[in-house]
Amino acid sequence: MAKVELAPLRSWDDFFPGSERFSKPDFSDLTRWNNRVVSNLLYYQTNYLLFAVAVFLVVGFLNPLGMFTGMVVVSAVILGSLWAGESRAVIKNFKRQNPTAFVIAVIAAGYMLISLLGTFMMAITLPLTLIAAHASFRLRNMKNKLEYKMEGTGLKRSPMGILLEALGQQGESLQKIQTFLEEKVKE
Length: 187
Description:
This protein is an all-alpha fold. The protein contains 10 helices and no strands.
């Protein structure tokens, strides 16, 4: 298995080109839309990370206690969902059969808890919303598709790939290819 590497920072022209590289996703084909989002999350992960850190820092300076509380709540929800997805058969089956719905449920649970606690939500919702919008509307290019295939087959590993795999977003066909390749390497 390849070692974990952070993807390179993509140039501004690549990350945010003209409007011709953006289009409305096909909401009737959820698999295709999901593949676009996952591909973009893998390809632009460093850009997304820097954007989220910048927003976190700005909001953190404005409201440090709310920022800390929000981070703790979101971390607890994500860790709890990952634990439940691995140790509870019903949740594990749901996660395997409906990976997109599982991620939406995790985000909704985090959002509701943050709302109930009255913590500062701008630092969490703003970057997540903008990242989700960019990943949904940004068309993929050949480099992007290649990165997705390399990550899915295990030839390349990244922090976003590990997170997406834990959330059940890596396709089963790619996991089968990865298993096949690992078996051949052992032989």
